[in-house]
Recover the amino acids of this structure.
């Protein structure tokens, strides 16, 4: 468990997002990665599971494929009351042929369905040969409604020095 982020809801409840990567979970050595949410209704004295944002089960740890996971999360409660969860995602790019890449993915909480929906890629390089290692997102909503996401990354060309990137959305995070 780690890389947590807290947000307080209007009713006073606390939500805590975190990565849950317990390591090997099966006899075959598969690794399990997830982003989870816990909730507290008593100012953090006790916590209960709230929801599962994303999960993946990967190859045994000794295989190169196993080195991808789901990492640091960030919760944003927007002024309109919608809740978004941003997280570091190595699994989605891998499944799309971008090996060793990491993107920022965002999902929105659907209060009616009581689940996280509509995964959106927030930041990435668009060519498989241009490395993306985007992570550790922090997001704010400006008075105009524009979302501003700052993240750590690397330059897309070798030798890939570290950098900070900023991406914006003018449609509430849909793009």
């Amino acid at each position: 468990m780690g890389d947590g982020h807290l947000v307080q809801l209007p009713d006073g409840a606390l939500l805590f997002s975190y990565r849950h990567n317990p390591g090997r979970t099966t006899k075959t050595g598969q690794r399990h990665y997830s982003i989870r949410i816990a909730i507290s209704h008593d100012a953090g004295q006790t916590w209960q599971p709230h929801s599962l944002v994303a999960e993946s089960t990967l190859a045994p740890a000794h295989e190169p494929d196993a080195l991808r996971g789901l990492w640091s999360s960030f919760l944003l409660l927007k002024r309109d009351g919608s809740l978004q969860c941003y997280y570091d995602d190595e699994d989605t790019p891998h499944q799309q042929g971008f090996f060793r890449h990491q993107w920022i993915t965002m999902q929105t909480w659907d209060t009616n369905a009581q689940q996280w929906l509509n995964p959106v890629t927030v930041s990435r390089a668009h060519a498989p040969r241009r490395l993306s290692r985007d992570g550790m997102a922090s997001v704010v909503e400006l008075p105009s409604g524009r979302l501003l996401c700052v993240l750590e990354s690397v330059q897309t060309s070798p030798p890939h020095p570290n950098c900070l990137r900023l991406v914006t959305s003018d449609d509430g995070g849909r793009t």
